Amino acid sequence: MIVDLITSQNAASNQGLLREMHRQRHRVFKERMGWDVTSIDGEERDEFDRPDAAYLVATGPNGKLVGSWRLLSTEKDYMAPTVFRHLFDGAPVPRSPRVWECSRFAVESTGYPLTANGVDRATGCLLVAIFECAFTYGIEELVTVVDIAVARLVHRALDMHPFWHGQVHRLGNTRAMVERYPVNGEVVHRLRQMYGAPTPIIRQFGLWQLPEAA
């Protein structure tokens, strides 16, 4: 499995993969999960799919899309406090060059065997990738909005719980909350060992120009 970091610097050469990512997001969020999201011509996009967003995209040996994440710095507007401000339950909203939001996590059934903790290998590799990418860029924290089913999966896949989370709230046909996770070398090392991931798991770095990048 290959994981690529796609940013504004290399988006032009990855248009086909990005369009398939948006089609997968439509299948996962609109069709399978029934979320109230905007899809046009079978592609799910929102206001946060901006030029300053980055994507971690996983493909299998045949080049077929497996899954993806979206990344945004919390210095500018991001999805959690803009769309789901009430999920913070009055707690301060993270705003820092050292904090990223990860959102739009989508994985479809791949046929890969489950790992020892019952997690699909594609999910495990994408979790390794998100923490590896954040650590490489000197990020100290990840913030995300997750529904209850995904939260349980992530807790099991990471073998850890967030250091902070809000209360569970009803969002349409699901229940969700905000979670915040620490990023450090110990977490990255542990996840690489758990999933037998190569070092690094992301094929290339240096494509996202952040002023505080490590």
Automatic annotation (TrEMBL):
The protein's Enzyme Commission number: 2.3.1.184
Reaction(s) this enzyme catalyzes, per UniProt: a fatty acyl-[ACP] + S-adenosyl-L-methionine = an N-acyl-L-homoserine lactone + S-methyl-5'-thioadenosine + holo-[ACP] + H(+)
Keyword presence, Transferase: yes
EC class name: transferase
GO molecular function: N-acyl homoserine lactone synthase activity
PROSITE patterns: AUTOINDUCER_SYNTH_2 (PS51187)
Tagged with keyword Flavoprotein: no
One matching Pfam family: Autoind_synth
GO biological process: quorum sensing; signal transduction
Key words, A-Z: Autoinducer synthesis, Quorum sensing, S-adenosyl-L-methionine, Transferase
Gene3D superfamilies the UniProt entry points to: 3.40.630.30
Family from the record: Belongs to the autoinducer synthase family.
PANTHER family: ACYL-HOMOSERINE-LACTONE SYNTHASE, ISOVALERYL-HOMOSERINE LACTONE SYNTHASE
Name of this protein: Acyl-homoserine-lactone synthase
